Amino acid sequence: MIEDKNQQRTQLSDLGEFGLIDHLTKNFKVKQTSTIKSIGDDAAVLNFKNNNVVVSTDLLVEGVHFDLSYMPLKHLGYKAVIVNLSDIYAMNATATQVTVSIAVSNRFPLEALEAVYAGIETAAKIYNVDVVGGDTTSSKTGLLISVTAIGEVEPSNEVYRNGAKPNDLLVVSGDLGGAYMGLQVLEREKEVYKVNPNNQPDLEPYTYIVERQLKPEARKDVVKLLSDLKVKPTAMIDVSDGLSSEILHLCKQSNVGCDLYENKIPLDPQVISTCEEFNIDSTTVALNGGEDYELLFTISQEDYPKIKANPSLTVIGFMREKEAGVHLVTRAETKVEIKAQGWKNFNA
Ligand code: ADP
Ligand code: MG
């Protein structure tokens, strides 16, 4: 898409570094009262009064975390912000600011960065966070984008990974596996396109899962819901690497075991039908797929009545003593040990 001949291509060097920063950031308006000084000085100044501050960073690298042949640049900007906000919400905190750092090679015109920033701006608006700084530099190999998210939480309201207790319930928001199956569809269409560029992909039957991959959302709403329901999770993590890996994190850090029930794992009908089409097991996809950005948390059993009627929350398991281990209880009621997956990015 950045090769489109009809599109204007303004060389980044025409603007210079400061002109570029100005141009990209001129629309950002301060919304949070905690933002005292935003873009334009040597550092941003923030004031959180008596709240605790949470900070999280992610780095996205072209060719490793995203493929520009099917990832529109606007979506990339949006997703780069979302994946970071998700980490803030996983602490049971409110996201308030982000900083955005980019490295670009000269194969990207100004219009490409404008598209990335349009996505960043949209996410910042929807999630009510201020963009308060960043860094801009050149790269020889492609596009890198790093976002740091900042949030606040009332002292003692933060939720760590290490608080789960035996007999707690394991709960997940939304549904799982969609982002991974969306990626499978996009990869297949890319191969088809390589063979015949006149072949227009029909993504209609896959709209939900493609959107889960290209335009994920962070579960700000779930943090609010839990607060409204007066439920404080005992432990929480966001689902970025896949359910099995996140469960193992919770169990390891909390020193507990877990039984995960295969028949409880929430799956969208489009995930099920696409798994059938690709001949992949949907449980494997939910366990190892990743990038769903749902919240996975444990609650004490006393809190079950408060959440049980909620359609966006599903109880999928039961925490146990550490000695019991971490298992998937299959539909056939056999127990399979859940094991750590390797790190995808390095395995390839
Ligand atoms: P310095 O030389 O001190 O690093 P810069 O010239 O890089 O300062 O940045 C000037 C201002 O613009 C700072 O407030 C910085 O945080 C902000 N900024 C730089 N690059 C970006 C970017 N890509 N997105 C948002 N803000 C940026
Ligand atoms: Mg700088």
Question: Would you mind describing this structure in some detail?
Answer:
With 348 residues, the chain is α+β, with helices and mostly antiparallel strands. It folds into two domains: 12-153, 2-Layer Sandwich (60s Ribosomal Protein L30, Chain: A), CATH 3.30.1330.10; 169-337, Phosphoribosyl-aminoimidazole Synthetase, Chain A, domain 2, CATH 3.90.650. It contains eleven helices and 13 strands. The chain has helices spanning 16-25, 73-89, 110-126, 178-195, 207-214, 220-228, 243-254, 269-278, 282-288, 304-307, 344-347; strands at 35-37, 45-46, 52-61, 94-104, 130-138, 144-153, 169-173, 235-238, 256-261, 295-299, 313-321, 326-329, 335-337. Strands 8-10-7-11-9-12-13 form a seven-stranded mixed beta sheet, with helices on both faces. It has a four-stranded mixed beta sheet with strand order 3-6-4-5. Helix 2 (73-89) packs parallel to helix 3 (110-126) and helix 4 packs across helix 5. The protein is globular and about 65 Å long. The chain starts with 15 loop residues before the first helix and ends with a helix. The structure holds adenosine-5'-diphosphate (ADP) and magnesium ion (MG). Adenosine-5'-diphosphate (ADP) is lined by residues 21, 24-25, 39-42, 100, 102, 131, 133-136.
